[in-house]
Amino acid sequence: MEFNIDKAMRERLEETRERGRREIRPIGLEADRLGRPIPPDDPYFAMLIARGEGRSRWPGPAGRPKTAGTGGANKSSARATRSVVMHLLLAEESAYWDRGVGVANPGPGMPEPNVISMGTDEQKERFLSRFLEPDKPRWACFAMTEPGAGSDVAGIRTLARKDGDGWILNGAKCFIGNASRSDWILVWATVDPEAGRAGHRAFVVEHGTPGLGGFKIEKKMGLKAYESTSFTLEDCRVPAGNLLGGEERYQSRAGFKSAMGTFNAGRPMIAANSVGIGRAALDEALTFARDHDLLGDPRVRDRLEQSARKLRQARLLYLRAGWMVDAGKPNVLEASMSKAIAATIAADVTALGMEMLGGVGARGDHLIEKLYRDVKAMDIVEGTGQIQRVIMGRHLVQLPRD
């Protein structure tokens, strides 16, 4: 494995670090103080679009190259950001400043890999073209989780029924990031709840479709910069052309496997986010200990060193999982391992920070207290820690894993 980064990537990381200090952390702290997501018309998002962000990785119908990241990014920088390992390093750095702001940012988001890998040429053009050179901040989102189906995604109950030349969807989704502001939502449904994973289908449901509604932005203990939304589908009719990939794509559980592929790429991203949050908590704890003359206590030094060492361990795990994607190797075990372990380590580091703060942490105005609330989601999103351990256990004893 090779994790060296080139000059262009170092520049990207430094640029992210500077933006984090100047832009990401301040707007994340403001969202946390106000207790609400960053509004979609906030000038921050318009600035990102003007800077060349929020764009699709799909090259367009003509396969034309696009700049990546910023409008002025050079070709070597664009190549660097296409590496999964490089994306993970950038995700860690961004989460160091505020993970919620990163999720709130406009763009095609989590469903993009599904559309690129499963969608027809017509679907890619119809749903991703608007993200090539967006005229304003635009979002898309991925809707799998339901009130009765979280980590066990095989248990989804949103029902899809064929009706003439279209489909009728009925069900409810919850904790979906950026749903109310998205141009379209990739909704996962089932044609037969008793069929389990074999019944899964993915539909692109466009904003404004009759029957799509009931949007409710949930209140959360942390990560308040982005919206987590519940919504309903009531006799929501979508055309046959919005079934992602067409019906032939869903033979041999292809739809479910595509969704799992998204999670196997996303779980190392959550691990990277966790390391970023943990690093931020460790740095704040070190500053507090230094300012309050606590570093003379060997017990304090030992626990701080242990935290730093565990965060390095977690980084190596997510880097290996990302490297395997770049190398074209299956990474189910490594993706689960990186996510489960990094989230736990980050929670431990933030808990240590709160312990060191003592009464200061109870005031609710210290960054570590915010990080302590933010980090809990890392063990939940994209499959809980318990589910990751189930996956790892099944892998260990060689039981079927999908």
CATH architecture heading of the largest domain: Up-down Bundle
Terminal CA distance: 27 Å
CATH class placement of the largest domain? Mainly Alpha
Radius of gyration computed on alpha carbons: 21 Å
- Strand-pairing-aware structural class: alpha+beta
Q: Please report which band the strand proportion falls in: under 5%, 5-15%, 15-25%, 25-35%, 35-45% or over 45%.
A: 5-15%
- Count helical runs: 11
Largest sheet: 4 strands, antiparallel
Order of helices and strands: HHHHHHEEEEEEEHHHHH
In what order do the strands lie side by side in the largest sheet? 2-3-7-6
Counted up, domains total: 3
Helicity, as a percent range: 40-55%
| Number of beta-strand segments | 7
**Assigned CATH superfamily of the largest domain:** Butyryl-CoA Dehydrogenase, subunit A, domain 3
General shape: globular
Q: What is the fold named in CATH at topology level of the largest domain?
A: Butyryl-CoA Dehydrogenase, subunit A, domain 3
Overall average residue pLDDT:
90
Q: Can you offer a commentary on this structure?
A:
The protein has about 400 residues and is α+β, with helices and mostly antiparallel strands. The chain has three domains: about 5-110, no CATH class; about 140-250, Butyryl-CoA Dehydrogenase, subunit A, domain 2; about 255-395, Butyryl-CoA Dehydrogenase, subunit A, domain 3, CATH 1.20.140. About 50% of the residues lie in helices and about 15% in strands. The chain has eleven helices and seven strands. The chain has helices spanning about 5-35, 45-50, 75-80, 85-105, 110-120, 120-130, 255-290, 300-325, 330-355, 365-375, 385-395; strands at about 140-145, 160-165, 165-175, 185-190, 200-205, 210-215, 230-240. The strands form two sheets. It has a four-stranded antiparallel β-sheet, with no helix packed on it. Strands 1-4-5 form a three-stranded mixed β-sheet, with no helix packed on it. Helix 7 (about 255-290) runs parallel beside helix 9 and helix 7 (about 255-290) packs antiparallel against helix 10 (about 365-375). The longest helix is centred in the last third of the chain and has 38 residues, at about 255-290. About 45% of the residues are buried. Residues about 65-80 have low confidence and may be disordered.
